[in-house]
Amino acid sequence: MWGFLAGAALLIGAAIGYILRVPARLIAAIMAFGSGVLISALAFDLMDEAYKRGGFDSTGIGFIGGAAIYTAANWLLARRGAKHRKRSGNQQPTEEESPGSGLAIAVGALLDGIPESIVIGLSMLKGGAVSAVAVIAIFISNIPEGLSSSAGMKKARRSASYVFGVWGVIAFISGVAALLGYAFFGSFSDDVVAATTATAAGAMLAMLSDTMIPEAFEEAHDFAGLITVLGFLAAFVLTKWEAG
Asked: What DSSP character marks residue 87?
């Protein structure tokens, strides 16, 4: 349920970005805020929890491994037309310009969402209750992801059925991935859970650096840093509120 809820934010963002004409600078500002939220959540919630469970070795290996796996997969998809899948401008290629790019963009969007969803399930292993910070942070960041990407898809002449089909499938898979994160890893050792959590965190940070932050900076570079800091602070406050 929590995975579906977080994934549904992608559909909300996609609907806003596809139906409404949202100014590029506003999209960039929302993207910057969402980036700050996710950076804070993975630093103070995910990485801290992974370290407590498995120590520095499992956490460090998982963190670097997650970033490396994401970067390799993202590099391959970028060569097939998915490099600008989170961009709201005219950067995304049309199917005529880059045959197969539609599928690559869909797979890339799925690649971006899976680590976040698994984290939701893993967060429940520590006591049966979901991490509110993880769900809220992922929900908040998913809205600008869906918004920016769907605006770019529309400019690349992708159909409404393609756009909402992509995000609908990803929202569904987000719920399944969260369920698997909880059900599959429940019987594993703390070291494995810690490494998996850190792997997801590393993939998320690499995703932010490769896709969300460039979009935020290009259109809102004068204020992108400040807005990102505000997002970071919002998630930090949520983390301390949940802990206390």
From this structure: -
Q: Which of 220, 35, 50, 224 is nearest to 125 (CA)?
A: 50
Cα 148 to Cα 36: distance, rounded to the nearest angstrom = 16
Identify which of 153, 181, 187, 186 has the alpha carbon closest to the alpha carbon of residue 167: 153
Of 28-42, 102-116, 172-186, the least confident: 102-116
Sign of CA dihedral 174, 240, 198, 30: positive
Q: What are the angstrom distances between the C-alpha of 161 and each of 11, 15, 157, 164, 221?
A: 12, 12, 12, 5, 33
- What is the C-alpha to C-alpha distance for residues 122 and 198, in angstroms, rounded to an integer? 11
d(Cα 133, Cα 236) in Å, to the nearest integer?
9
Distance CA 75, CA 151 (A): 23
* pTM, rounded to two decimals: 0.79
Contact 170, 113 (CB under 8 A): yes
pLDDT band at residue 61 under the 50/70/90 scheme: very high
